[in-house]
Design goal:
Elements (H helix, E strand, L loop, with lengths): L6 E7 L9 H7 L5 E6 L10 E5 L2 E5 L5 H9 L4 E14 L2 E12 L2
Antiparallel strand pairs: 1-6, 2-3, 2-5, 3-4, 5-6
Length: 110
């Protein structure tokens, strides 16, 4: 076999965390190294290349639009991609509002 492990593709952040109502619960349980499920959202009317990011079966956001084109083409071609949490936290506070982040690495399953 030419590959003995999955192939690292890119480091990204989860877009849209601010729109998730249960994000406090996610942040109470998420850990560095946790696996994230990446799923194509072909019915997304705003972005035909949208890729959902799920954590334990719950939607937590999307792959950023600026980074989803090539990844969506791989997925549409039958490739299995997944994410691994690299870091997470609160970046800064703006007018009393916490700006949360989850950074992750994307891998191609071989």
């Amino acid at each position: 076999q030419p590959f003995v492990k999955d192939i690292f593709l890119i480091r990204l952040y989860v877009a849209g965390l601010d729109y998730i109502n249960y994000i406090d619960e996610i942040f109470a349980t998420i850990k560095v190294g946790d696996k994230l499920e990446l799923l194509r959202d072909t019915s997304n009317e705003y972005d035909k290349h949208a890729i959902l990011v799920n954590y334990h079966g719950e939607k937590i956001g999307y792959v950023p639009r600026k980074d989803n084109y090539v990844l969506s083409k791989l997925m549409d071609g039958g490739k299995h991609l997944y994410g691994v949490v690299e870091s997470f936290g609160v970046d800064e506070v703006y007018k009393g509002y916490e700006l949360r982040f989850i950074n992750f690495e994307v891998f191609l399953k071989e």
